[in-house]
Specification:
The chain has 90 residues and is an alpha+beta fold. Helix content is 26%, strand content 32%. It has one domain. The protein is built from two helices and six strands, in the order βββββαβα.
Length: 90
């Protein structure tokens, strides 16, 4: 599952899953607080998180997806690749 980490205006690091599109056009996202939720594709205009900013959230996600019975490997991608997946340039 492809994931990109972005830093929102309030300094929260959020994981965006650009291939996980919901019917209403939103994308699935994940944050430490609130956990799974929905995000507008415009979140991909945010700054891409650095490795040090995203590492704890990545570890949390790996604990959810990669240690589950139905193993789902995570692939961290760039913000540019995520924008291409959703079909636009920011």
């Amino acid at each position: 599952m492809k994931v990109v980490f972005v830093v929102l205006e309030d300094s929260d690091v959020v994981a965006i899953f650009p291939e996980e599109k919901e019917r209403n056009g939103l994308l699935t996202c994940y944050a430490h607080i609130g956990q799974h939720g929905s995000a507008a594709p415009e979140c991909l205009r945010a700054r891409e998180a650095t490795l040090s900013e995203g590492v704890s959230l990545l570890a949390e996600l790996r604990g959810i997806y990669e240690s589950a019975e139905d193993f789902v490997p995570l692939e961290v991608i760039s913000i540019e690749d995520a924008r291409a997946i959703v079909g636009w340039e920011a």
